[in-house]
């Protein structure tokens, strides 16, 4: 509605991460954005707090049709308290992440529109320590949700494989014949035409 009035707006990138806290083991969330200060925005009926300015640069997000695993990089300053929490206190590897683009009113800071443009996981998050007098940053490498489709099926394990691990283990002793045996549950076995 506010967009139809052609109200002045400013666009921002929002990064939402859900990761495990290394010390407590509990799942926690962190929101970073390209705007100034702290902003609470309602995303899909959930109030999320975003801290900024915490996104230095975000290249254009490339989309496309197909099942390709897309990669994306977000550069964040490494010394802000929120980024330190996200990268050092949380376990960022394989943490679920979402990126939204938000349009806010320049007058009221009211959310005018919100669009999710990326969903996936954090792949790597190396922190570059600068030389004396230099500026450091962290580059968070993301992979798209299509990566979940690259998981392979569990392999069939045989008794011989199990014996290689432990010569006394007989857990899979009959695994090669399991599909060949008939098992009758709750009914008498009939023979011939009876």
The low-confidence parts are: none
- SSE-based structural type: mainly beta
Number of strands: 10
Radius of gyration: 26 Å
Taken in chain order, the helices and strands follow as: EEEEEHEEEEEH
The oligomeric state of the chains shown is single chain
Q: How would you sum up the major sheet?
A: 10 strands, mixed
Proportion of beta-strand residues = 35-45%
Backbone shape? elongated
Average pLDDT, all residues: 83
Question: Distance N terminus to C terminus?
Answer: 75 Å
- Specify the number of helices: 2
Helix fraction by DSSP (H/I, runs of at least 4): under 10%
Could you characterize the architecture of this molecule?
By secondary structure, the protein is mainly beta. 8% of the residues lie in helices and 38% in strands. Strands 1, 2, 3, 4, 5, 6, 7, 8, 9 and 10 form a ten-stranded mixed β-sheet that branches. Strand 7 and strand 8 (111-124) form a beta hairpin. The protein is elongated, with a radius of gyration of 26 Å. The mean pLDDT is 83.
List keywords for this structure.
single chain, 194 residues, mainly beta, 2 helices, elongated
Gist?
The chain is mostly beta strands. The protein has helices at 81-89, 159-165, and strands at 9-21, 27-33, 38-43, 46-51, 71-76, 90-91, 96-105, 111-124, 127-128, 137-144.
Task: Show the helix and strand layout.
Layout: E1 9-21, E2 27-33, E3 38-43, E4 46-51, E5 71-76, H1 81-89, E6 90-91, E7 96-105, E8 111-124, E9 127-128, E10 137-144, H2 159-165
């Amino acid at each position: 509605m506010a967009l139809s009035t052609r109200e002045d707006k400013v666009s921002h990138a929002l990064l939402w991460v859900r990761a495990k806290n290394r010390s407590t083991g509990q799942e926690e969330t962190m929101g970073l954005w390209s705007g100034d200060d702290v902003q609470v925005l309602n995303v899909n009926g959930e109030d999320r707090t975003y801290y900024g300015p915490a996104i230095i640069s975000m290249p254009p997000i490339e989309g496309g049709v197909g099942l390709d695993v897309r990669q994306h990089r977000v550069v964040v300053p490494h010394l802000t308290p929120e980024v330190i929490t996200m990268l050092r206190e949380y376990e960022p590897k394989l943490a679920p992440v979402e990126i939204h683009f938000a349009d806010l009113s320049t007058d009221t800071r009211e959310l005018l529109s919100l669009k999710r443009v990326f969903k996936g996981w954090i792949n790597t998050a190396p922190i570059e320590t600068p030389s004396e007098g230099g500026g450091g940053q962290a580059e968070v490498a993301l992979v798209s949700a299509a990566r979940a489709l690259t998981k392979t099926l569990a392999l069939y394990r045989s008794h011989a494989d199990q014996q290689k691990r432990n010569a006394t283990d007989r857990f899979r002793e009959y695994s090669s014949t399991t599909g060949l045996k008939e098992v009758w549950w709750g009914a008498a076995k009939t023979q011939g035409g009876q």
